[in-house]
């Protein structure tokens, strides 16, 4: 089983790499040890040296490459997030990120469809379905798209803004909405997040309450998070400051800002970018339920 | 003091004054959202199950539980008495607390008694115990009904299924983890 999982993992990574190479994306490597990540309220970086952090995502460096004129980029790299360990979390994990200049999140959704179809055909030709908790998820059937507010209303009979105000957002999402998404036999795109959850995403031009952000779910498992990128440095700095204020209120350390990124952001073309968890993609391809089953070693085994 | 980062299956904590065993645990964290620590816990005093969700920053007191080897002495009504052979200290447990373990309690059996403070809250038995059959129907030779087991009563009063060749007065080995017949003690 273990040897099979490692072969499958290698095959998934090779297929992903070939997919982007064939479509003219530039594969990049950016530094893993950086002075500043994008500060977020609920993501804690790991510091190994004073004033340096392991990346929680390669997004800052990859967006700086967009600012320098690169149009289509991808990277498969290790990321680290402190104190995240569970059946679908490891503190050290493998992330795929890809970016497109002159694009928006709709283009990324189309990329996701083609990518998942390619991966399953290459890695599970016998049964081209992803599997989660013994449920088959067919990437060739039309994908469901549902807005966050619709999902909260339909599955939980609650308004997402009420949940955010009352501090129940995560609880309702994980105990009601995600289990409902697990019943779909196609991938599901949960889209148009409340601006409160926008992070680095652009606001929808026709609705100031919503951000052009989406998450891809297979069998209720969150696989990828993509958005149309915010390119306004003033707004971006305001959101970083807001994240740091929230951290301070919660007794967390405030995080340094990625200043060179903020300085360059005004030169970034309208772009879209997405992060996809490779470990989870392997879990779904293998049809196993824990992340432990798709890595060579867990931290507990070291 | 434990924090949410210490939560895992098997952890024992105090909640509302009672000791709880964490029997299921998962870490959930939706994208860009707050981490939730979902647990299922069993009250070690009465066995009831409880679902609780915790967030970063919450803390717990460890449940200090002690396991001590004791010998089963006797039963009086619903009360079972055990004694520590070194200190001669005695503890009493209710039949309800013992659960299925009462089926295997023969005088002088050595067991591990779980103590929460002064109170005995459970015992762990050896995986296998030897008990004598005190009653079972004789094996009807030539029985072609195809039954491959029959009921038998052992000296503690426990009734279980045994193979047809087991006779009254024989010593048998019982697996205390599932309550089933394991083998016969020869001689």
Structure description:
The complex is a heterodimer of chains A (302) and B (187). Chain A is of the alpha+beta class. Chain A has a single domain (2-301), classed as BirA Bifunctional Protein, domain 2 (2-Layer Sandwich). Chain A has 9 helices and 14 strands. In chain A, the strands form 3 sheets. In chain A, strands 1, 5, 6, 9, 10, 11, 12, 13 and 14 form a 9-stranded mixed β-sheet that branches. Chain A has a 3-stranded antiparallel β-sheet with strand order 2-4-3, with no helix packed on it. In chain A, strand 3 and strand 4 (52-54) form a beta hairpin. In chain A, helix 1 (2-22) packs across helix 9 and helix 4 crosses helix 6 (169-181). Chain A is globular and about 50 Å long. By secondary structure, chain B is mainly β. Chain B has 3 domains: 2-62, SH3 type barrels, CATH 2.30.30.30; 65-124, OB fold (Dihydrolipoamide Acetyltransferase, E2P) (Beta Barrel); 128-185, Nucleic acid-binding proteins (OB fold (Dihydrolipoamide Acetyltransferase, E2P), Beta Barrel). Chain B has 1 helix and 16 strands. Chain B has one helix at residues 95-98; strands spanning 2-3, 12-15, 18-28, 36-43, 49-55, 59-62, 65-76, 79-83, 90-94, 110-116, 119-124, 128-136, 150-154, 159-162, 171-175, 180-185. In chain B, the strands form 3 sheets. A 6-stranded antiparallel β-sheet of chain B has the order 1-6-2-3-4-5, with no helix packed on it. Chain A binds chain B through residues 40-43, 83-87, 89, 169-171, 173-174, 178, 197, 199, 215, 222, 225, 250-251, and chain B through 5, 26-36, 53, 56-57.
Summarize the structure.
The complex is a heterodimer of chains A (302) and B (187). With 302 residues, chain A is an alpha+beta fold.
